């Protein structure tokens, strides 16, 4: 029983981390219609900010990482993504791939291609025992942060004017624009929040692994993409569900797979959602994607 | 254009010979260089084959795949397994089945087997992946790439894991790679110009319109995906026989970005573009790598070695291309379609054959109960009743007008009849066969053609291609399809402009082209959704004449949604009036026009009052 409880909490924690990634990707997708390949590099750059400012008090280093995430997201939006805002989906996707490649290799040149280790606060690597289950403190932080983010996003989207403008832009960008929504501002805000979410994920990943590498964003961005797809494109709730499912799958497979197959966990984790898509091409919670009127 | 051709012989020849000449030039330059340079050029040619593989799928379907390098990985490992010398195989791949490990094949047979295996893998992987949406394919193919990486990186006893394989025989020469690249170019162009290639390009241009002419989007994508897998597998196999080493990252994320950059910079829609882009980017890449390894400029500035610099450069080029030149260097055109070729060889005036009679009515074996019928069709969108218990009968050879105010449900009814919308209740039958819920593709094959309120052109295809692809959607061969297209275009008086891209035609011509495309499937029933909207008076009179000819010559039934009453009066023998999702009147045009209820709903009560007064 305790083992099961332990596994479930691990699954929930990993699922929340994945949900945070998926939320960041969905947010940009809803207002701009772009699947952002560079989201993984936002995560990676924030992690490197933590590495660079490791000498500072931990809270200051985390703040620097958040700032880095927001700044790089805003910069990428202004320089690379605004010019292709009206291009088709594929063109936007390839543009974000270019941004990802550039950012990844800038870090390779500036720091190194090899992994760098980062010291993490001891309090985070300890565990707390609750009723026979020992839960790593980092998992509490992850779960708490996810709940906070969800509450904050909910408040922003449904209780503020900015949120209203964002939801309007998500429904119909051109119409919202005609009605006086400032498109550039809405897109910039979406990117800023997305960058902040990426930074949180970056910090959590460093706490988990204790190291940074230039390619560390690749798997998270794929996780986020797949979560978004199985959750149904462009739905916040779907992204959270998709992230939780994928995280739970990855976490439980890690425990229950036979030893010989454990190295192939990622392969299985990414194959299962594609099989789901065969039966539900628009995702688990997805409606019609095609908006074409016939 | 005549004689079943979609392009002049000269244009086709230039389109094929220009990329081949460029490859020959690369081979010539490479073969005369130092051994290390020869090796570099050989790898570039292998890369080119992968890029052409990418073009076959991405260029023709318009859907990006980030997984094609997974097939290059598969091809490379297969080729390595089949050729590793016994001593090295025992050490590096002890888990490999003896049958494969002891094969010790030559380079040609191992490359061919690698091609076949990669192609098969692409079909197996594509079967589920191509079912997902246009939006999900880039992501699911990316997932496939990661899955392949994960498997080869961890299957230590077979693939050598992360340390990879060494001492693979190096048998690929510059000339050999050049020959394979030439074959790949020829194959890619042959596919692009085949009926299957055109059907796939139609889905790229407009997925909805493509389905309406009977094209199976998933099937066409799968064919190209498989062919792309074959070419990528060949590229991977040849590359591994050049370098002699292989590891899981050889064809992974970095190579995906590089090949994608080559394709996009050259212009993904064109095979010529793929070749130009590969040569251009490979040259830049070599220069950047020189800088990367440290360089001294004029003895003044010295740059330290900085791995990753070349990749930044490529990323910037890709970004700049997407922003400033999304169609790439070739503008998406083959060499024989480029403007400078037109200036070089003035186009001969196209011969305009008169109606050749290629467009013939579909032969049918006397259906027991002819006609397109809707019975008790109801449909609601989130509680809003759009159709309520509607009946409709369209007999072969008659023209039925469907009128009613905006929002009456006319277009929705056509969508139900043509399979684009499934009704909540009620049935649709075609010549006595129940077809409720059948896909638009199957209905098109059963003899149902339709147009849309918007013209939905295939902007990048020429007029002839746009219409011929309608016949190709029915499985008609290319030559016969062109004959049908020329016949249809002749009847609609569109032949003169038929060589131009459909997207460049004026709106009226695009609309007529939409009708021509629907006619090219040789329908038994034709559903026209406001065909005269946007046409000027002369054009709309001509349209009526054409439709009358269609009625008389083919005995095909026409359902006409139209606001212009004079068009309806001229053409239709019966008119059905819809209002608020219900049929309120069926009768001759005269009866309907005189009906007070129709006048009330259609023209408004004030008008009715004025008539009464």
Outline the secondary-structure elements:
The complex is a heterodimer of chains A (294) and B (613).
Chain A (H helix, E strand, L loop, with lengths): L1 H31 L6 H14 L5 H24 L7 H22 L5 E2 L4 H4 L1 E4 L2 E4 H23 L1 H11 L1 H6 L4 H27 L1 E2 L5 H14 L4 H21 L8 H15 L15
Helix pairs in contact in A: 1-6, 1-9, 1-10, 1-11, 2-3, 2-4, 2-9, 2-10, 3-9, 6-7, 7-9, 10-11, 10-12, 11-12
Chain B lengths: L8 H23 L3 H27 L6 H16 L2 H7 L5 H4 L5 H23 L7 H18 L1 H4 L14 H19 L2 H11 L1 H6 L4 H27 L9 H14 L4 H22 L2 E3 L3 E3 L5 H16 L14 H6 L27 E10 L2 E11 L4 E5 L6 H8 L7 E6 L2 E2 L5 H6 L2 E3 L12 H11 L4 H14 L15 H13 L5 E5 L7 H18 L2 E5 L3 H7 L2 E6 L2 E6 L1 H6 L1 H8 L1 H8 L1
Parallel strand pairs in B: 5-10, 5-11, 8-9, 9-10
Antiparallel strand pairs in B: 1-2, 3-4, 3-6, 6-7, 11-12
Description of the structure:
The complex is a heterodimer of chains A (294) and B (613). Chain A is mainly α and 294 residues long. Chain A has one domain. In chain A, 72% of the residues lie in helices and 4% in strands. Chain A contains twelve helices and four strands. Chain A is globular and about 60 Å long. The C terminus of chain A is likely disordered. Chain B has 613 residues and is an alpha/beta fold. Chain B folds into two domains: 240 residues, no CATH class; 241 residues, Rossmann fold, CATH 3.40.50. Chain B has 26 helices and twelve strands. In chain B, the strands form three sheets. In chain B, strands 8-9-10-5-11-12 form a six-stranded mixed β-sheet, sandwiched between helices. Chain B has a four-stranded antiparallel β-sheet with strand order 4-3-6-7, covered by helices on one side. In chain B, a hairpin with a 2-residue loop joins strand 11 and strand 12. In chain B, helix 3 packs antiparallel against helix 6, helix 3 packs across helix 12 and helix 14 packs antiparallel against helix 15. About 1% of the residues of chain B have low confidence. Chains A and B meet through helix 4, helix 10 and helix 12 of A and helix 7, helix 13 and helix 15 of B.
